[in-house]
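Sequence, please.
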């Protein structure tokens, strides 16, 4: 969190209430990313009353991705969920994700998949920019996840050991790199529709964020593209970056003694 004094109290009250009601063995990790307001003081009030609430203070600004990665380091439970402080998705929405975590490594909340749920309340501007970002993503990656940036996910801590060290993006494109690298490493990902309500007091500069994310997206694609060109290990899932298919097809020599392995087309 960064300067969330207006929202962090409500978030902690609701999260604590819900987890206690569910009788879970839980902990709540709050990462403060260089706050200059009263956010830290408020979290400390809660942690002094309940030891299951832990505050992690970062020495400098790390952004969303950096904050999440450092929070994971402090987690002691086998399953980890993360959510936005604005409560756009209520903690009770984890009930939609939990049934799928046993057979998957990552369960992603989705604002675009609706199933039997109503339309997620999001401004038209955000929906349009989200659509354009996903279209750009779909041109670069062969990954069937519709909502890459939803800040509501559940995953197995042990499954992430192959991915965490490879994540380099600290900004909002962290979610995208997280999904791409997880898929590249063969992790099972399930997308599940959730109830989502847009926070009208959001501090996000959507246009500046999309520009930064698009730049990061190209860098992610380049990294994965290079990995797929040079990676020979069979534990990697091939063809995550789309252009690699065309590149290998053009470079294929039918007269060579060794042809391409058939298993590279799976996944």
């Amino acid at each position: 969190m960064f300067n969330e004094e207006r929202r962090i109290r409500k978030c902690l009250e609701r999260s604590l209430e819900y987890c206690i009601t569910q009788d879970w063995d839980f902990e709540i990790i709050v990462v403060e990313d260089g706050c200059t307001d009263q956010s830290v003081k408020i979290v400390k009030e809660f942690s002094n009353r309940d030891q299951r609430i832990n505050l992690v203070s970062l020495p400098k600004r790390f952004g969303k991705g950096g904050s999440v990665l450092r929070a994971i380091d402090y987690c002691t439970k086998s399953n980890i969920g993360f959510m936005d402080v604005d409560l756009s998705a209520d903690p009770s929405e984890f009930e939609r994700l939990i049934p799928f975590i046993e057979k998957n490594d990552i369960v992603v909340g989705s604002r675009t998949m609706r199933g039997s749920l109503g339309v997620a309340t999001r401004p038209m501007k955000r929906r349009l920019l989200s659509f354009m970002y996903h279209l750009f993503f779909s041109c670069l990656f062969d990954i069937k996840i519709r909502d890459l940036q939803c800040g509501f996910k559940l995953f197995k801590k042990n499954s992430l050991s192959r991915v965490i060290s490879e994540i380099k993006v600290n900004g909002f494109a962290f979610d995208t790199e997280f999904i791409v690298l997880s898929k590249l490493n063969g992790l099972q990902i399930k997308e599940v529709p959730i109830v989502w309500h847009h926070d009208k007091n959001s501090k996000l500069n959507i246009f500046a964020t999309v520009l930064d994310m698009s730049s990061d997206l190209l860098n992610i694609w380049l990294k994965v593209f290079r990995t797929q060109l040079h990676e020979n290990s069979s534990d990697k899932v091939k063809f995550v970056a789309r252009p690699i298919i065309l590149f290998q097809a053009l470079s294929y020599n039918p007269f060579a003694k060794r042809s391409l392995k058939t298993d590279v087309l799976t996944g």
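The mean pLDDT is 85.
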